[in-house]
């Protein structure tokens, strides 16, 4: 991405729901798909594999965030009890 402006142009909802790493990986993949030389573009199989890897990574990331929220919520409720 030129001038490191990726996060300036990505929709706020995407920034909220996805990890920065996942967004960067996706953007790099999209950039490779736009290569003028067709031989340098990824195959559909490569695109599918990379998208599946991003999806799996994002699912793990979101599950981790949910777990962290639960822990903070439990800790917060325990503080009020004391």
From TrEMBL:
Keyword Kinase: yes
GO process terms (BP): cell surface receptor signaling pathway
Gene3D superfamilies: Transferase(Phosphotransferase) domain 1
Protein name: Wall-associated receptor kinase-like 1
Membrane-traversing stretches: none
Organism: Prunus yedoensis var. nudiflora
GO MF term (any one): protein serine/threonine kinase activity
GO cellular component terms given for this protein: plasma membrane
Alphabetically ordered keywords of this record: ATP-binding, Kinase, Nucleotide-binding, Receptor, Transferase
InterPro entries: WAK-like
Keyword Nucleotide-binding recorded: yes
């Amino acid at each position: 991405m030129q001038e490191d402006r990726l996060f300036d142009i990505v929709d706020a909802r995407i920034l909220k729901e996805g990890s920065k790493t996942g967004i960067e990986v996706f953007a790099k993949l999209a950039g490779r798909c736009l290569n003028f030389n067709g031989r340098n573009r990824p195959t559909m199989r490569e695109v599918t594999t990379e998208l599946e890897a991003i999806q799996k990574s994002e699912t793990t990331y979101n599950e981790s965030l949910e777990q962290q929220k639960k822990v903070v919520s439990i800790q917060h409720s325990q503080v009020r009890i004391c």
